[in-house]
Amino acid sequence: MSEQEATSSLWDEFTSPVNLILVFFILYLLYKIVKSHFETIEPAAPAPPPMPKLQKDMTVAELRKYDGSDPEGRVLIAVNNIIFDVTRGKRFYGPGGPYAAFAGRDATRGLATQQVAGSEVEYDDVSDLSPDELAAAKEWEEQFKGTTYF
Ligand code: HEM
Questions:
Q1: Does ATP-binding appear among the keywords (predicted)?
Q2: Helix (H, G, I), strand (E, B) or coil at 106
């Protein structure tokens, strides 16, 4: 084979459709890699400021309106007679969230018995719960006290 024939068959090889596609693909990947190095990372949107605290006690009936569905969007839940403002955990407790059933409700019994359901009665003294269930409710109370929502 002459030198000229060898060169032209190499060139034919290089310009075959499959190789051209591969070359363009590699160039495209290189472009993406280089571009990603120059892109500035957008800072995450700052969290909305916390709502002013509600300094008041309320009945179970009054609590009901704080289920996150009104324009203010505040979400309160009660555990062991303590009312927690969980508005910042709206993705859990807000309308459509997995734990929306606790919003605006006394959640003590549900949390104690592992049922996602708020109390339906005006006052539930939970005196029928077992020691283990009461302990579970206490653990949830501690978790809400320690959570960064407030
Ligand atoms: C198959 C059952 C369940 C699964 C897989 C599950 C899973 C989860 C997950 C992944 C989270 C989010 C944790 C995070 O991102 O911080 C969460 C949060 C939560 N879960 Fe469940 N869960 C289940 C059952 C329950 C039950 C039965 C209850 C209560 C009765 C419950 C109460 C909660 C509450 C209150 C939160 C929110 C905690 C917070 O405010 O940070 N979950 N769950």
A1: no
A2: strand
45-83 pLDDT tens trace: 777 777 888 888 999 999 999 999 999 999 999 999 999
- Cα of 53 vs centre of ligand 1, distance in Å, is 25
Report the amino acid identity of residue 84: F
Tokens (6 digits) for 131: 């020691």
15 Cα to the center of ligand 1, angstroms: 58
Please name the residues in contact with 75: beta carbons below 8 A apart, sequence gap of 6 or more. Answer: 66, 67, 68, 85, 86, 87, 89, 90, 93, 94, 103, 104
Q: pTM of this prediction?
A: 0.71
